[in-house]
Structures are given as structure tokens and as C-alpha cells.
Amino acid sequence: MKTRVFLTFLAVVGLAQSTMLSAPVRAVEGAVRPGEQRKGWNFRDAALIPVQSGGRLKPLDTWARELMLFLTGSRYYQGWDPVDLAFSLMTASDTWEGREFIQVGRGDVKRQIGLPEERTRFSPKELFADSYLVQYARETNTSKAPAKDVVGSAPKKDPRDEELRRTVERLVAFRRVGSGEAWPVIPMPGTAPWATLAGSEPEGGAIRAAFARMAVSHHRDDREGFEKAAAEVRSLVEGAVQAKPPHFETGLKVELLYNRLHPFLWAWILYLASAIFWIPAILLRGSKPESPAAKRLFWTAMVGTLAALGFHVFGFLLRCYVAGRPPVTNMYESIIWVGFGIVVFAFILYRSQRQPVLLATACGLAALAMVAADSAPAMMDPGIHPLVPVLRSNYWLTIHVLTITISYAAFALALGLGNISLWHFMRAKKGYMAKIEGLNQLTYRSQQFGVVLLAAGTILGGVWADYSWGRFWGWDPKEVWALIALLNYLVILHARYTSWVGQFGFALWSVLAFLGVVMAWYGVNFVLGVGLHSYGFSTGGRGTVFTAVLLQSAYCAAAAVAWKRHRMRQHSGNPTGARPAEA
Amino acid sequence: VLLKLADRLFRILCSLKLAVVVMLTLATAMTAATVIESLYDIRTGQYWVYRAGWFYFMLFLLGANILTVALSRWPWKRRHGPFLMAHLGILMLLFGSWVTWKYGLDGSMRLVEGQASAAVELDQPEILITDGNSIGTTPIRWTPAHAEFKPVTIPAYGLVVDRFITAAEPKISFLPAEPSDKSAKPALKVLLSGGPMRIRQEYWLWLGDPGWTAVQAGPAFLRLLDGSDPDNPNVQSRFQPQRALGMPPGPELDFTAQADGSISWWTRSSSGEQKKGKIPPGGVKGQALELPWKGGVKLEVLEYLPSAVSRIDYFPSRIQYGPQAPPSAIHLVAGNGGPGQEMWLGMGDRAVLSLGGRDVTIVYQNQRQMLPFSVRLERFQIDYYDGMRDPKEYASTVSVAGGSGSRANVLISMNEPLHHDGITFYQASFEPGEPRPTVSILSVNRDPGRQLKYWGSLLIVLGSVWLFWRKVQQAKQAKMMMTSPKEARA
Description:
The structure holds 2 protein chains of 2 kinds. Mean pLDDT of chain A is 82; it is low at 1-27, 142-155 and 574-583. In chain A, helix 9 crosses helix 10 (159-179), helix 16 packs antiparallel against helix 17 and helix 19 (432-469) packs antiparallel against helix 20 (477-497). By secondary structure, chain A is mostly helical. Chain A is built from 23 helices and 4 strands. The longest helix of chain A is centred in the last third of the chain and has 38 residues, at 432-469. Chain B is an alpha+beta fold. In chain B, 24% of the residues lie in helices and 41% in strands. Chain B has 6 helices and 24 strands. Chain B has helices spanning 2-13, 16-39, 42-50, 53-72, 81-103, 450-480, and strands at residues 105-112, 116-130, 135-139, 152-154, 159-165, 168-176, 185-194, 199-206, 214-217, 220-226, 252-257, 263-268, 274-279, 287-289, 297-316, 329-334, 342-346, 350-355, 358-384, 391-402, 407-413, 418-420, 423-431, 439-446. In chain B, the strands form 5 sheets. In chain B, strands 2, 3, 18, 19, 20 and 21 form a 6-stranded antiparallel beta sheet that branches. Chain B starts with a helix and ends in a 10-residue tail after the last helix. The chains are: A mainly alpha, B alpha+beta.
């Protein structure tokens, strides 16, 4: 596949576009508003045209969204409807040729190609004129070895090389959208891959003709013509799909709903708002008798949290329906799932402990997690992809991965609560010890959840590995890091049990132990990049994660210093009256 | 005094301090191992950590610690239930792992479509020695490139394995043979130089192996013929150079090794011009032949050995780690290591040595275990994702013969293994091939510790759930009694 992309690149560099579809479109007189958005058009029928790409059938809308994200690096490029953008790229490619819309990430890559580092997007014209990029494409094409072992370890990727390769692929994709080669909308008999608009297979005659009408209408700014032709193409393609999976049409509509609603976006906005409402709600709650304002705040935050959870679950269900499996196979999906787990654990603990601080922490953490997942689509691919062979045993995969990742949620909640404890230690205001004891008790509870689930999940992973590979334990880095994280928490639980650590030590180590989870969750796949779990490997985000880890460590150190000072003051006879912490 | 010492040892073993120290040591060691694996490869990580003696000792210490802690609570009461359950589970898991390591089988089987095999290959190398009467193996410890290899002696034959190359590449050369050596054959070394591409390349030709008698040197085809072979009067017709369709014929050059030590040669240029010549015995070195070839290509005879043997030496490969690294090689020394008494053996190489008057066959290979039955690959199937070259599923249809019963056409697919006589076969991977892959790799496994591990796991999970649930109950009771929320010690 990739080799062909590069070959095409070489073919298109320097060549004028001369393919079947765009040529007649261009010949049509009367281009109206080329390269401008068709505001107010109804793209529903166009969006629902089935296409085959990335190993599955999906609505054209998803394909167009992936294209937009890939080309521009953004999910919401200047308010364009993705389908509109795809058609505009095809019918007004001359206009787009000079527009700066193709993303080139990484400063070092831009420096290497000789582009100004302060800009993020570049026009195809300036990129095609770049001799380094052309040279790179040529070299990569000749030294491409096919990956052999599907289960074995894959070679590590160099992030800079990856970005260079992607830049070349973006240019190729742009040209292929214009030429029609990128539009896989012609169903073929049997299991043969679908043909594109640029092909000449006899099966696609009617579809190509109707598609050309769509393109021409888009070109001429003819709304009615476009919508009519779109409905026609949709029914033609749907009729031509062979061996339809069950609920085929419904599946496309559900996926469109998922794409357009983007429920996870609403979920994190609501989580964030609720977290903000929770803070005054908690602060006012302490004062007695409870004021009506405090009550109102409390219920607003509560309703907001529940609404956020509702969107979260709804998005989750839609995604399950579309993918036909639980969403647990990449970083994006696991973060969404962990965010959900954090809120659920908070509610479970809230049932018995009635401490709103739980919900506040959970809202904050869930919002943080989902913002992180949503903000870096290039690093954490939000697309829905088919599974590699080893993951296709749904049952064990599902249980094992869901259990492990949900334990991360419990540990994340413990992390959040631990940080709040440390905050109280730093301030050491009157009555703080009681608050801390309560918080630590909650931390302890969520760690217990986490330990049981992580132990069970790791063991289930062993069962799954035994079932599909014949070994219960193989010292694979992912397994090993899950075990390291587990050992860390076991040490903490044992140390608390025997009172080796006091309240402060417990809070501190609870926070630090999460580093093991970060390594097991993120580090193995993104930093180490070896082992059997290679299907989850990716690159990127190291800087962000590293900064977060550093900030967290600095916070811990600051808390430790502040607490030490406070205790020294107490020992030197400062009559604050606070009782010693290690009581 | 002894009792006192035993008591102290028991106290140390059952202390929680030891548990914490062991757990933290294990965590640190495993962290290091994953870093090593990331920098080098999994086998290096196993060499330094997972399969190192001290790591096994730490695991043993953990087991001993848990056992003594459990014993120290004697006499057990009802409240010890969850604690004992979880810790017994860990013990069973550790013991089960030990049983697997000691008595289990974990290897792989490479099956070619239409062929049967009973050999399971393990991942550690060994030397297999066969003489007329006996057969024996000596394991060789795989050692990473940066670690020191400990020499292995095989006293029965006076052999020493003194060097080990982790990832080795072969280089072949030819040496004058001892007069007694029957495998010796003429060998010729030529240098091809000049031409439009300004090449400069040396070639060996040798009559001892059919693969070495002819070579395609750029467009030219060179070959060495045996003049003493009576079946071979018209040698020109015996071998024909392989030529791509539509290519013009390149120049050919035949050397014939005569019994008197001279070489006669015959050539035909690409335009069809022929020429003959003879090199007298002893007049070989540095002789440039006057060839009617185009483009100014020069051919020089560098060396001629009327009776030569081949020798393979191994050198460290450029790639030392990871899946692309070539397999290992060893250096063997017999007796005092004089000429003919030392040699290199690469993975899968075989050599015959004369030791103490006996002919001894030595093979360097991966350790293998023979199954009491054989497995035959009938067919390998592979499916791809819609319109992509990514495999969706692959499976092997095999037949089993022997053992407790024969079975025909069983399907082994990803996550659907075959169980036969306590041994399980899993679809692990395949070797790519055109037009379709026909070599399947199965992972072969027998795990006598499986039951222990499974039950142990169950106990761990149930025990810890019970333990934490009881703590929640205790905390609730404590709250109701308006005492401190801190738990009482169990």
C-alpha cells in the first residue's frame, strides 16, 4: 500500500493533473465561488454514501473527516463540513493548490525541509516545490521492507521520519482527492477491494456518472442539483454493496450521528463546568446551617456531572455499535474508558462515604483525561479501525483490557485525592488533619479497588495469553509494567497496614505510585516500544507526558518541603495547637 | 544456639520488611529489564534479568517470605481466612511457575505445507555429537554480544567451545588440503576488473561443491570444469548460464583443471568470438588472460590450488540485536587447536571430525525435543482485511499421526489451538511467500503447572476481594461505634 502511495507521489510530482474525473469538471464553464464553503447546504445524503477504506465500510462523512484531520491536523478546520471540504478539494483544486492548509508538524522536520518554523500549515504549491521532500519520497520508496511477523516485535519508529513520511502522504492524498483516486466508492463483486472514481471498471459506470453530477453541481454552486445527485449516488452505492453486514444502513446513520454530535466533546465540557461548580459547593457545605445557595450549587454540580456522564455513556454506546466491539484497542479509546471509570468509582465511593470532594476530583480528572484525548488527534487516533489478528478473540480481549484499564481509573482517582491531601498538608490550616484522614481513607479505598482489578486484569491477561499463545507469563514489557505498578501499590498498602508510613507518607506515595501506571499505560507503548503488545504502539506526546510527570514530582517535593518545615516549627515549640501528624 | 539461629532466620524471613525489600527489588529489576529489552532485545533482557540466577533467587525469597508469614500466624483463626487465601494463591502461582519452568515445554515448530515433523525447537542452542556408538548433546548458553562467554568443555571428546558470536555472518575461503584429505578438489581464484562500471571483484571457483563450480559475474559467466572426469567429454553442453528473457548472451569463460596441474581455458565473447588457451602448472599467479571481450574487462588468475578444502569463518554481523539479527555461531577447538583442529560452526552447520581414530559428527543447532507423534501441515490459509494486505486471520490444517491416536485435518487458528496428548499447538505466525505463504510456525507448549497457576490466581483475586471487603465492614462497624475510623490490626 505504502509503496504504491510513493509511486503515485513520484508520478504526480511535476505532472499536470490529467485524470478522468476532474478534467470534465474543470472543463465545465461557470465555476462559482471556487474554494468557498457551501453554507446552508444539506450534506446528509452525501455524508451517508458508503465507502470502503481502512479495512471496513463507513459513511463518506467518516472518510472525509479522516481526510480533513490528516491534511489539516485539525478536526474543525475553519468551520468546514468535512464532506464539503472533500468536494471542494476535488472541484476547486487549483484554488486549494495555493492555500495554506496542509499541516507539517514538528519543528525539526520543518527545519530539515527548509520551511519557516513559525507556521503550522503550508500550501501544496510550496511543498511540491520543495526538493528535499521529493528526494525523501524517492529514497523511502526504494528502501521499504515488508513487515513480516504479525505477532512479533515491530521495529521502532523514528518520530521525525514518521512526520516526514506523513507530510509526503498528505500531498499524495491531496492530489488523489483531486484526481478521484482517493474516493473508494465503487463496490466490486466478491471480496475485491472497492474501486475508486478514477478507475475504469464497468461496474462503476452509473455511480461515476452520478458522482460527476454531484461534483459539477458543487462546482457550479448548484445546491439542488448536488442534493439530488447525492441521494442518487447514495442509493446506487447502497444497492451495489454485496454481502451487506446486518444493520448496514442503520450502522451508517449511527456513525454519522456519532461523528456529528461528537458526544465526548459535550461530556468533557460538562465535566469541566461541573468541576468548577463543585468547588464552591464543597466550600459552602462546610458552613452550618446549610444555606439554600449551597444547596443550589450542589444540585447544579450534581446534575451537570450526571449529564456529562450521560453524554459519555451515550458516546460510548454509539462507538461500540459502530465498531462492533468495545472500544479498548488504542490510547484514545482507553483514555475515554478510564475517564468513565473514574466517575463511576467516584459515585460508588460516594454512595457509602457521601463526600462531594470525590465527585469534584472525578469531574476534574475526567475532564482532563478527555481534553487530553481530544486535543491530540494526530497522536491519539480517534478513528475506528479493524483489529489485528491476535486481538480478534473478542471475549478474553474485552475482559482483560477492560479490567486492566478500569484499574487505572481507580488509581487515577487515588492520584487526584492524594494530590488534594498534599494540598492540605502544604497549607496546614486548622482542622486539616481530620480532612486528610477522610481523604486518605478514600484514597485507600480506591487503591483497594485498583489493586484487586489490576491483579485480576493482569491474571486475565495471563489467561488470555495462555489461551492464544500458550504461555501464561512471558515477561512481556506490558505485563511486566502492570506487575511493577501492582507491586508499588502492594508495598503502599502493606506499609499503611503496618503504620510504616503516616498520613503524609501515604498521600505522597499514593501520588508517586501512579508513575508506574503511567509507564504501564503510556510508556510501554510510546517510549519503550517493544514487546508483544505492538499493535498499540505509537509515537508522540513524550514532551507533554514528561512535563506532566515533572510537574507532579515538583508538586510532591514542594509538599514534602512545606510539611517538613511545618513539623519543625511544631517541634520547636510553636504553640499552634495542631496535633502531630503521626499520631 | 542452632535453634536460636533458626528462630532468627525465621523472624527475618517472615518480616514485612523483607517482603517490601523483595518487592521493591523485583520492581527495580523488572524496570531495568524492560529498559534493556527496549535498548537491545528480549533475549538480552532474559539473559541479564529474567533468566538470571539472582532473579530466580528473589522470586524464591518472595515465596519463602509469604510461606513463613502465613506459618507465623499459627494457630490460624477465622479472621486470617482472607489473608491466608490471597497469600496461598501467590504461593501456588509461584510454585506453578516453577513447575512450568522445570517440567514444561515451550518451543516452536516450523511446518512446510505437505511435510510432517515431530521436532520441537527450543530457543537455546546446543551441540549434538554423534559417533558410531553414541549420541549426546551439550547445551550452550546463549550470551548477548556485550557479555563474556564462558567456555564449555566436552571432556569425552576433548573438545572446547571457546568462542561464541551472538549474531554471526559467514565468510568462506579455500585452503590447501592435507594430502590425505579425500574431499579436496581444485580451487581457482580470479579477479575481474575494469569495464564500463569499473568493477573490481574477486571470485572463487571450487569443484568440491556443485554450488561453487560456476558463478555469474556481472554479465560474464565463469565456470570451473574437471578435466579428469571421463563422463564429461563435451562439457560445454552440461551447464547453461541462466539468462533473463530477451537479454543478449553475455561472455562465457570455462576453466578446465587438468590432472597434470595445468589449466586449459576456453571463452566465447558476447559477439560469438571464441578463443582458447592454457596455463602451465605453476605458472598461474597474477596471470592476466588475453580475452576477446568488449569494454576492456580484464580477468586475472590470482590463485590456483590443485587440491583445496573449504573453510567457513564467522564474524560478528553488523546487526547484533533484534529480530533482524542473524543466528549465533560457535568456535570449537579439538586437542591443541593446531591446523585442522579448530573450526567455526554456524546455526545448523554440521562437521565431521576425526577424534582419537573415530569419525565424529558435530552439529550446532537449537535444542530440540522430539514428540511421540508427528504433525503434518496439510494446508495453510490466510485471509486479508477488505481491500488491504493486512492479514485478518490465518490458520493451519494439520494431521497428527502416532501417540494416543491419529487425527486428520484439524484446524489450528489464532486463539483456536489443537490439544493432543497433553501438548497444545498454537498458530503463532507464518513465513511470507509468493503467491501465498506455505510455511506455518506453530508454538508448541506443554504446561504441567497450568492448574496450579489458575487455581492460585483465583485464590489471589477472591482472597483480596474478601480482604478488602472485610476492611470496609470493619470500618463501618468502627464508625457506628463512634471510635476512630482507623482499622484495627487484623
